[in-house]
Known about the structure:
By secondary structure, this protein is mostly helical. It is built from 22 helices and no strands.
Amino acid sequence: MRGSPKQDQSGRSSPDHEGPEAPDPGVSNGVAGSGSDDSHGTVFANSRAAASAEHRGAAGADDAEATEPRPSHFPATPLELPADSRNKVPRERGPNGRLGELLTAAGVSNAGLARRVNDLGARRGLSLRYDKTSVARWVGKGMTPQGPVPHLIAAVLSERLGRPVPLEEIGLDESRPVDPDLGLAFPRDVGEAVRTATDLWRHDHMNRRELLAGTFAVTAYGTPMARWLITPADARAEHRGSGPQVGHSDVTKLREAAEEARRWDSKYGGGDWRASMVPECLRCDATPLLRGSYHDDVGRRLFGATAELSRLAGWMAFDTGQHEVAQRYYIQALRLARAAADVPLGGYILATMSLQATYRGNPDMAIDLAQAAIERNKGIATARVTGFLHLVEARAQARGRDAAACGRALNAAEAHLERARPGDGDPEWIDFFTWDRLCADGAECYRDLGVPERTRYFTAQALAGLRGEAYQRSHGLRLAVGAQAELRAGEIEAACATGRQALEIADRVHSSRNAAYLNDLMLGLKPYNDVRAVKDLTERARLVGGITV
Length: 549
């Protein structure tokens, strides 16, 4: 990547909307604000009205769900509370004869079931410590294990019996916990893909806390990536269902909703109250359409619009540190993009997955995801889209500390961006990728590679191309990266001055990533606490939510 600043050939020097920013490790908890606004679009207004009507008939505990602070993850603890717990006692319903009979039929001992449940839980990132006494309580006293454990029990028995075992058959259907694998599947069949996606949207509305009780596992991206590489486009998208007859105007409303959501996200962050409207739109507006009737051309556009909305819902969850939820939305977005036969959109979703993998400290998988997107889009995607895919690979290569590979990817990104022209037919979701965005991610690459001078230079170029409040989150991230570079160069006063600007933006944006970047800065400044500028910055940081000093 050369050092001279320039605009891309389209003449645009700043994005129309903000795409996924380059990640950095360490995410604080996101807090969703609250409020009301009747100025948003028709689709979101309909979603909110439907959600409000449903909430009025629901229990009061669910009414506050969308505005409560959400932790980024829950501790991995046994989901049936142990005997010495004082917080909750598992329900007793009398002996569970159905479970006992099936254990006998499968030839599984109490100890054997406990061991296998613990093993399956460990694969999902859960630390379970069940033993034969736990199983005896389930069978003899009818105690109901919590969370995903009933599904794990059913999975063990399915393995032994060689057939599916529903929860009803083991007497645990009343618990109806959220399936721990909900939203992680990438079905081959289009109809099953619709059911999987809509199930996720429905359960997320009522049980996001249970989804957050899971653990993000980057390996869950392996199967979706492979299946998309093999078949990036389904043969047909037409459908005859029980819902409405879907037309192009219905799809246009969803596309407008996605465009509006991108603007919200860029300006206010993924933790703003408006972010909750995207899952509501999927649940209340997109779901009936997907279950309706449509011809192939309408179906392709419908799947494409819902894929982008699902990606946005995942991106907003990612921006607030809810990685377990984000991953599920990303996987369903990729599956819907395949149904849309939109290979560039599928590549963009893989790039978003790659950014998350980089953020979570998994550069190898991040490289695989980015390179898969690049390979499948050869000769298909526009120059601007292809350039962004190379930029995402550069971020992953930098996190993996491969300077040479990072440099090659940055040069490829720049070369493709230089070839971009108005009239190329770029999708609306890639408008953000301009010269200043290339510089911003280049700065983060050099930061990860430990080259502060290059970081400072490209941060200055990135900030020079960004104007106005429409892209506040991106502006804040770039300022934080610049402050970190000043600190590494030993310019403490300059680091504090830039950091103060970043804090002003963080106070207005609901983004865990902005907070994480600033927390890294404040941690780096601790050895200089005797410097007046550092003391002043620390006092200001204490007033900003999400900043720990």
